[in-house]
Amino acid sequence: MEFTAGEARLIRECEELASLAAASAWLEEPQFGKNADGLLTWSFVLLAGDRRIPLRLVFPALFPDLPPFVLPADSSVRLSQHQYGEGGELCLQYRPDNWHPDCKSADVVRSAKALLEATPKDDGFSDVESAHPTDLPSLLSGCSRRFMLPPDTARLLRLRLAGHATDIHITLERRVGASEVLVARIASIGLDSGLRVPIDGTGFGGRVVPGVLYRLPDIRHIPDLQPEELKGLLYQYLPSWLRKWVEDTGDMLVVISNGKQEVLLRVLHNGSKRRIDLFHTFEPPTAKERRVHGKMFRESSICIIGAGSLGSKVAASLAREGVGQFILFDNDVLWSDNLVRNELDEMDVGHHKAVSLRHRLLRINPAVKVGALGMSLTSQSAVQHIAQLSEIISTCDLVIDTTADSGVFRMAAAICTQKRKPLVWGRVYAGGLGGLIARSIPSEDPPPLTAASQLRAWCEEKGMAPPEGREHNYGVQGDDDDEPLFASDGDVGVIANRLVRHALDALSTTEIRVHPEPAYFIGLRKGWIFDHPFDTHPVIFGPTDGWVIDSTSCAEEGVERVMTHLGVQDDA
């Protein structure tokens, strides 16, 4: 029988493992087999001092390019801190980052022996130094119940009176993947004061459940024990009156603090039976400002008109950029066929887009302030409440129109011109051919309506109007009976990303702007004025005059002056 190179290598490795077992007094009960995934395994018992440790070596499908790995035969056993969770593989001397095909499986077994001999009995902590720095994600990969506690929130918990219990609320966020993971975060401390925790603590979303915080009367040491032993001991730290209250309440989350350290227990009751779950408490990494000019936008307020495909992406990206305040306008409802391009998801179907987008932004950055109005700027009600709309927009630093609706643009342009507010707008052309991004900044550019006229004139000089299309959802009808061509999510995303940069430039000083020109036609594929993908045509506007010098509304002093000129009496 002829063997492949990989099969021949496996045979040699197995023969060497058999020889190692025969020559070593610390190896017993060797046996080859196959696991549920069809991988070759070698089971054995390792003798370490007076311990017998059943282990299993597994050859991965990509062996010998990747090393075999060793894990406990019992999937619930934790043998060392150099292990990826209960029942997980041991982190040994030979790993994917330093493995070479010339290394041997027998060397891997010897490495497991050295690690476990250095690990005291009934103690998962050995003196073996880690080959790579401990990182939080790897540590948490073996923890299905997690209690995220930032330092500022921990400080607030430790201010509670010793020996007293305090009502708290905790958010529980559940995710189901290879296993169920539950993340707990403090939402509020104290029912009467309603003390809110720092914004990096609670997040937005998840199920909010009541709990109790108990501050131990002294700084008692919380021992470093295995979870099964520790959780029962911690529960006994509670005074009898509090344990009775927890038992009478039923299921309860209990945070215990000794003034230096906090733990979270979930106490579940089923009749006379009690179960206690221990959460792994961890401190998240310190939040860093990753944007060069992110702090600049934190106090900025942006009004976004339109929460559709383009508007939702723009809003989400601006929230990630650190913009601190939003006003959202859109009276439309999200439907299932909108999901191919919208930032929102299935949970939002049937809800108004503006309100759902508000929730989306809060989940991206819980610190943002978001107002959502289900109102169309072209409806009769909008015309009747134009003064109110003007006042709302006047509180913003920037207005963005993402609707591609000429009526909406005219309304927004008129208000921005009167209130001297910068306006940024974008369009995605039918079929995903390309798009337009433009801005009109007082004292730098002509007013929006004038700028839009200049853009139309620029296109007329090219002899072709932009491909607006006859189909909705960024679509254009092809030749004859061809299916309509629609812009993809990626097409809309490209224009949205550039529109976000244009908006941030409008909020920035000229020396740090990325886009030097006020308008760009951006090509995504060949067609119309575009010779190739990413063919970009900047447009420079003409004179900047036309902005309203006096921002007084025509519904106020302006009306009074006109009435005086006409000789009309005020009959109010």
TrEMBL record:
EC no. given is 2.7.7.80
Identify this protein by name: Molybdopterin-synthase adenylyltransferase
Q: Which residues form a coiled coil?
A: none
Q: Which GO terms describe its molecular function?
A: molybdopterin-synthase adenylyltransferase activity
- Ranges where the THIF-type NAD/FAD binding fold domain occurs: 297-429
- Please provide the record's keywords in A-Z order: Nucleotidyltransferase, Plasmid, Transferase
InterPro entries referenced in this protein's UniProt entry, alphabetically: ThiF/MoeB/HesA (IPR045886), ThiF_NAD_FAD-bd (IPR000594), Ubiquitin-activating_enz (IPR035985), UBQ-conjugating_enzyme/RWD (IPR016135)
Originating gene? moeB_3
Q: Offer one Pfam family short name for this entry.
A: ThiF
What domain of life does the UniProt record list for this protein's source?
Answer: Bacteria
